[in-house]
Amino acid sequence: MVIVMGPEATPDDLTSIVSVVQAAGVETFVSKGVRRTIVGLVGDVTQLDAAGLRGMPGVRDVMRVTTPYKLVSRENHPERSTVHVGGVPIGPGTVTLIAGPCAVETHQLTLEAARMAQSAGAVLLRGGAFKPRTSPYAFQGLGEAGLRILADVREETGLPIVTEVVNAQDVELVASYADMLQVGTRNAQNFSLLQAVGAAGRPVMLKRGMNATIEEWLMAAEYIAQRGNLDIVLCERGIRTFETATRNTLDISAVPVAQRLSHLPVIVDPSHSGGRRDLVLPLTRAAVAVGADGMIVDVHPHPEQALCDGPQALVDADLGELAQVMTDLPVLLGKSPAAAVAA
Prior knowledge:
Elements: E1 2-5, H1 11-23, E2 27-32, E3 37-42, H2 50-54, E4 59-63, E5 83-85, E6 88-90, E7 94-100, H3 107-119, E8 124-126, H4 144-157, E9 161-164, H5 171-177, E10 180-183, H6 191-198, E11 204-207, H7 214-226, E12 232-236, H8 254-261, E13 266-268, H9 270-274, H10 277-290, E14 294-298, H11 316-332, E15 336-337, H12 338-342
Parallel strand pairs: 7-8, 7-14, 7-15, 8-9, 9-10, 10-11, 11-12, 12-13
Antiparallel strand pairs: 1-3, 1-4, 2-3, 5-6
Helix pairs in contact: 3-4, 6-7, 10-11
């Protein structure tokens, strides 16, 4: 069961609801979004009077939700949500481009990549300061020094930053710099990390685990929502299959399926799914065409020298075509490029 609070609800209204529910021996989880607050109930709710709860001040609705992911479900929230990151919308009315280097290396390279991203229509800058890698000998990121570089580049470009956090103990540090926290595929079921980012007070991008079903992906989002944060963006980044021709297999069908099951925005990562520069633009077109709410794309001024994922990073010659895709295709689907909305 979930209790949906109206936008007019006061903190005292919320406290009263929580007190009544907990007095009945039911546990509560309060999750806040931009437009509504939802109280999730866990336990024996048969002792609760739904009609009585509906009559309490500030309550918009009380619903029984049959899916296991109660807070992120369309059953509880029929209209699809828009998440704002530093004033930039990600949601059903727009197609938002997030771009930048896979890893932060130097201030100059990050600034050049940010300028490249802007020229293609990006309104959010991605860059990894902490990099969980398959090999322990691969570049693991600059840590806090990388976060400082991202913050400096944000000041110079005006682009809000999206960056990955890999350990629960680092969440507070990363959140002090980032506009949006990213949970990567290798941590998609790191439940202590999901709970920590849920409590951090920042929007979260949750990448689908490379071996995760769509339900497991949504259950991971529920861990974040249950800790008080409904500002979650789902990212389909390719799953592991028997196919070896691409780095991962982009599950393009996951976009409309996840949008049907959940009210959360769904974006696509064409860079990590294809793993090759020549696949990024075709996969971006496919993602826009299927209704994705945004894209997260690798760009790098010198990919041959990149310390992380250079072969998939777009270069200057690709940016004009990417900009055209992000400008022309969304309007065919009744959407706007987020760059136009942000402007």
